[in-house]
């Protein structure tokens, strides 16, 4: 049993945070660096049982394939509050204020967490790590001061910034969107905020930069000019790409699809919607996608759909590795614990030879009832073990080659003859009509869905 006393959900009094201001303060006392123990008891959830960072799978280490990342917003700003209940998560170092001192304590706590967990990457929104000021200039000053500390902690620990992003959805100015806002002044404010965000990303060596447009959409078409909004949003993205190049930031720019929530309809509905948008506006060479499976299932697709789809078109940049509850109709941001889902994701990652410079970012939050500090670790450990299992199973599927071979055989009619001519657009309707008139009724083959499902189960 650990020696620390986790803050309970009933303790809503303001904590005494003074001891956490000391340079040598320990935020997670009693929790050691998480180790690998494949023989650990079932009820020991504070060790890795599958994730072996240095184990080589298909020519790379697990650490290189998985590139795990902790998100700052849920892990260190989440309170457990929901539309029906007040906060339940009270961290002993967090006095609940929006002060710079509190922001620095959170950041130091985060880097201790990353180090003990053994994760090499983290992600944040600008307003997660630094409080918003009364003016843009004050906000920028706060961000400069906090990211100075972040840079110091990165150098000290070796933890890197997988990606940065800007919060263009929480403040009331953005209630009608940022890049798609009907008010040009608000779009200009968002542009200034992203300008600073890109500068901070370069300063911290971020490997990517993400855009999530939670307010880029509509609630009613009665007051909405869709083409104007989407054209302005494309202009916003073009300016971001131009500024990225101007300052010499080399990380990919990524757009994260989501069909709804908080908007009734978001313009970046799913992977193919975003790919179509990028191609229509000539942005496909400047942007790729950051896929969150919980968003994918909200769009009515299976868990891995958007990952497979964006990868097929060479547009998969990174993954926000979470899950939702399929029986619910909203974004629950749960930790992914389903090995079959993880297998399908990692099969795609292996097939495209990795997700770098992206990664698997845990855009997840502990449940509001999971109030112990240990739960922060347990949730990440469980998810990391799940993806480690998924990686090994996916590697077995691909190295065995049974399923890939049978999929290839299913499309073998396109390897030669008329199929090859169709694939290469070297035929016509007239020629195909003549061909089928001579050949007669085609032979129909079974899709054998249950056979493929059974084969997958045999690997699990």
TrEMBL record:
GO MF annotations, alphabetized: metal ion binding; xylose isomerase activity
PROSITE patterns associated with the record: XYLOSE_ISOMERASE
Signal sequence, renumbered to the chain: none
Domain of life, per lineage: Eukaryota
Biological processes per GO annotation: D-xylose metabolic process
Alphabetically ordered keywords of this record: Carbohydrate metabolism, Isomerase, Metal-binding, Xylose metabolism
Keyword Metal-binding in record: yes
Reaction catalysed by this enzyme: alpha-D-xylose = alpha-D-xylulofuranose
InterPro entries the record matches: Xyl_isomerase-like_sf (IPR036237), Xylose_isom_bac (IPR013452), Xylose_isomerase (IPR001998)
Enzyme class: isomerase
EC number, UniProt record: 5.3.1.5
NCBIfam families assigned to the protein according to its UniProt record, in alphabetical order: PRK05474.1, xylose_isom_A
Family statement drawn from the similarity comment of this UniProt entry: Belongs to the xylose isomerase family.
Protein name listed in UniProt: Xylose isomerase
Species per Swiss-Prot/TrEMBL record: Mytilus edulis (Blue mussel)
């Amino acid at each position: 049993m650990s020696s620390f006393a986790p803050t309970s959900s009933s303790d809503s009094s303001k904590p005494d945070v003074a001891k956490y201001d000391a340079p040598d303060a320990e935020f997670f006392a009693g929790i050691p660096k998480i180790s690998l123990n494949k023989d650990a008891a079932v009820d020991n959830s504070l060790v890795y049982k599958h994730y072996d960072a240095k184990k080589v799978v298909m020519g790379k280490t697990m650490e290189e394939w998985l590139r795990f990342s902790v998100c700052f917003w849920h892990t260190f700003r989440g309170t457990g509050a929901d539309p029906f209940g007040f906060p339940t998560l009270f961290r002993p170092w967090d006095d609940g204020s929006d002060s710079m001192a509190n922001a620095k304590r959170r950041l130091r706590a985060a880097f201790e967490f990353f180090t003990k967990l053994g994760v090499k990457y983290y992600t944040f929104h600008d307003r997660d790590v630094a409080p918003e000021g009364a003016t843009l200039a004050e906000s920028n000053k706060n961000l400069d001061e906090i990211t100075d500390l972040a840079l110091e902690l990165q150098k000290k620990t070796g933890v890197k910034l997988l990606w940065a992003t800007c919060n263009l959805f929480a403040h009331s100015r953005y209630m009608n969107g940022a890049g798609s806002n009907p008010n040009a002044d608000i779009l200009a404010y968002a542009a200034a905020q992203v300008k600073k965000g890109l500068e901070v990303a370069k300063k911290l060596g971020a490997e990517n930069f993400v855009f999530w447009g939670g307010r880029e959409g509509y609630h009613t078409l009665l007051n909405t000019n869709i083409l104007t909004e989407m054209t302005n949003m494309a202009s916003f993205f073009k300016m971001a790409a131009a500024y990225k190049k101007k300052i010499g930031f080399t990380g990919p720019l990524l757009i994260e699809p989501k069909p709804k929530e908080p908007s009734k309809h978001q313009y970046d509905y799913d992977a193919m919607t975003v790919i179509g948008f990028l191609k229509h506006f000539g942005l496909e060479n400047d942007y790729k996608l950051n896929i969150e499976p919980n968003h994918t299932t909200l769009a009515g697709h299976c868990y891995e759909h958007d990952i497979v789809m964006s990868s097929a078109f060479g547009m998969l940049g990174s993954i926000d590795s979470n899950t939702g509850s399929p029986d619910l109709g909203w974004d629950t941001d749960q930790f992914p614990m389903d090995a079959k889902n993880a297998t399908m994701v990692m099969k795609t990652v292996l097939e495209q030879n990795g997700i770098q410079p992206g990664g698997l970012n845990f855009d997840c939050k502990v449940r509001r009832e999971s109030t112990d500090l240990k739960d922060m670790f347990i949730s990440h450990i469980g998810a990391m073990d799940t993806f480690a299992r998924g990686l090994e199973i996916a590697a077995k599927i691909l190295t065995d080659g049974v399923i890939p071979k049978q999929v290839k055989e299913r499309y073998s009619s396109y390897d030669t003859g008329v199929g090859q001519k169709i694939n290469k657009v070297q035929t016509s309707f007239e020629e195909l009509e003549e061909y089928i008139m001579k050949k007669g009724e085609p032979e129909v083959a079974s899709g054998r869905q249950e056979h493929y499902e059974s084969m997958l189960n045999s690997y699990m």
